[in-house]
Amino acid sequence: MNIIGREREKDIISKCLESGRPEFLVVYGRRRVGKTFLVREFFHGRFSFYTTGIPDAKTRNQLKAFHESLNSYGDDVKTIPKDWFEAFRRLRKVLESGDVYRDMSSGKKVVFLDELPWMDTARSDFKSAFDFFWNSWGSAQEDLLLIACGSATSWIISNILNDKGGFHNRITRQIHINPFNLGECKRIYADNGFSISRDQMIESYMIFGGIPYYLNLLDNRLSLAQNVDSLIFDERGDLHDEYDQLFKSLYKKPDNHVRVIETIGGQRRGLQRSEIAERSGVSDGEGLTKAIRELEQCGFIRQYKNITTSQKGCFYQVTDPFVLFCLYFRSGRIKSWQSFLKSPDYYTWRGYAFETVCLAHIPQIKAALGISGVESAEYSWKSKKKKGGAQIDLLIDRRDDVINLCEMKCTDKVFEVTADYRENLVNKAASFTEEVHTTKSVHITLITSNGYKRNEYSDVIQNDVAPDSLFTERP
Question: What pTM does this model have?
Fold first, then answer.
């Protein structure tokens, strides 16, 4: 079983097999994050029944694909089901046959329905039939494990997990597959024979994030920069059109989602709802609510409150590295990543992108600070002063009355504090404390990509997080 990480997820699947009851497991997460791979590898591709939905296909073609899967698992009916009720009735017959395949370790019948949202086409009876299949039969089969999977996370959440109808309280377990962290990415590089330095691993995360599918496309014969050009900037590259496909594959009408995420992505610290409505052109109503909610459910944006917005709502911030990379460079400002490297604009981008990497590794940062068990909120803050104001891109506001003011530095060499930078840090901390009137202790915390060397100006640094700490798989 060649599955990197995913220990919690594998444990949940094992518990489903070991239980003496019917199990309905829902697996969901962002496109390309490895949902199908996890399930297929765990079971070595052997199921009692497996089928997958087809993107952008009409009901008849979805039923045709389901029919062909039924035939491959022993169903001898030659005609395509006339509707989903017939399709699931025939599936039940397959599962009730004496020679149906059972999991060797548990004896359970395992049914894997992949890309379920694609099967639910307009004006079809899919959901009603699926509901009837589970509630009238499946939920009484103690030897059944039904796994439903899909990338359209918002559909899964709205129609299955949060359903108020037939599926209400029927889901026995769920797994939300998240992108890999740096430590898990490091294992992918090693498994694929891709020789890459620590600096380049961090840069790779800035571009591809922790998405296994993207990382598995890297050619170990090429440098990281050559791979970026080949995969993204070359019009024939596998990821050249991935940004557009992301939203088209997840949302039936993605225009609002694209406008919202491109508006939010233009501000590093994010925007509040009223600002999104004003700048995106999406009216402040149900359409905006739906787009924000679904982008958040799919993991493209996060919602946070900072110390000044408790009464005014929250901020929304883009946190998907690949999406941010595409937003930054899709305007055509550069034609080649290799020619862009080491330019002044490259270093500007890298500084911003490293902040996103750190935001994705809050558990690792907290572990390095020795506060894994302390409840905290993470947010950014900007002074209201028009002149001399400060901006802090990451604050870890802890329940033990400490706030870590995090400074994130991505450098080619070991970082050293200068006299000017020391003064800047002191002013930031003072400005923050004065404006928000916090009574908590403010600890200036340095997070670096290439290490940190103490000198005579380092007295203001209370904590530092070394780059190796970011590579801890399970803090």
Answer: 0.92
